Amino acid sequence: MTDGDGGPNAFSQAAWARNAAAYETIRTMPFNAELAAGTLPQATFRHYIVQDAHYLIGFGRALSLAAAKAPDPDGIVQFSRAAQDAIVVERALHGGFFRDYGIGPEAFAGTPLTPACHHYISYLVATAYAEPFEVLCAALLPCFWIYKAVGDDIFARATPDNQYRAWIDTYAGEDFADAVAGMIAATDRAANSASPALQARMHDAFTQATRLEWLFWDSAYRDASWPL
């Protein structure tokens, strides 16, 4: 990356810097600290993984809409593949945990979305429909980038026998790293031709999605549900 000098990675670097404190809060929050230690209760992880599977369906829809809005053929292919990976590749990860925890299709379908999951999906899909491609890229980027950063951090300190090793290895893996690098590059390309006003909206979207990343994990840790 550049040093914020207006080069090709200027937006992504600036967005990460603006939200560095939020990322540090996410990295050290109880859910991720206990996940790294392998001490996160299975009931908590089970709650999280079911909601995450629901979330990825909505995330895949938003990625598909980004593909439809992409200004060039390469972007259509990139976002279409990302949507496919969100549904197919990560479903395989969830499927392993679902089998371990005895979660069948009916149990999954019958589990309602939590307020945090519903809010995050609604935000991304609304952004996909209502905002231009540049803002949508910025809203989608934190899910890629923060998961990669958290995955790398946990991988560096997790024991080999950690019960959540499959999750850790997925988000610290090379395939996911390539997807994240591609998303960062696509967002920076979009920002390069955006006006200052549009870049400001991109920053707002990146920050809002970062907040929702924290809210999703915090909600899973607290087993938060609808109050009525």
From TrEMBL:
Residue span, Thiaminase-2/PQQC domain: 30-222
Stretches assigned to coiled coil: none
Source taxon at top rank: Bacteria
InterPro entries membership: Haem_Oase-like_multi-hlx, Thiaminase-2/PQQC, Thiamine_Salvage_TenA
Name of the protein in question: TenA family protein
Species name: Methylobacterium brachiatum
